[in-house]
Amino acid sequence: MNIYVINGPNINLLGTREPEIYGSETLDDIEKKCLEQGVKDGHIIKFMQSNYEGEIVEWIQNAIKEKVDAIVINAAAYTHTSIAIHDALKSFSGFKIELHISNPHLRETFRHVSYISPAVDAVVAGLGPNGYSHVIELLNNLNSQRIGKLA
Ligand code: CA2
Fold first, then answer.
1. Hey, which bits of the chain come out as E strands?
2. pTM of the shown model
3. pLDDT tens-digit profile of 12-44?
4. How many domains does the chain have?
5. 74 in ligand 1 pocket by Cβ < 6 Å?
6. Residue span of the structural domain in which 129 resides
């Protein structure tokens, strides 16, 4: 499969502070593990991070154009605000997984709302930095069965 892993604002700061919430790995460490898992499973993975909402929208549009099979997205704070990313994801017909390192439902109430969840097939949250490679592994089995897909 061809997979885009898209990361939103401030995720480039992973490993620099708040290790009790996000762990101590850097984004480079996470990318490395993710790509290793991808090679093991025979996937082509493009790993991206941006602090700009419009750039994330363009990457999703690019995934549509390039007929990418799956998007894994940690939209970070844009999860809780972005109708633009919601709309772009709705237009992508491949498999979509919303990913969070922490479990936003155990945190401040403003993190309890996700504009991304209604536009994706599945949500994975609270598994720490390892969530990324777990999700890549999961995609092997989930690709052919989009059970419960309402979006
Ligand atoms: O748990 C997640 O993965 C989040 O998407 C992370 C976002 C947060 O806004 C979401 O509610 C949940 C924040 C990412 C910022 O990460 C930092 C890590 C270390 C230092 C500073 C920021």
1. 2-7, 44-49, 70-74, 95-100, 122-125
2. 0.95
3. 999 999 999 999 999 999 999 999 999 999 999
4. 1
5. yes
6. 2-150
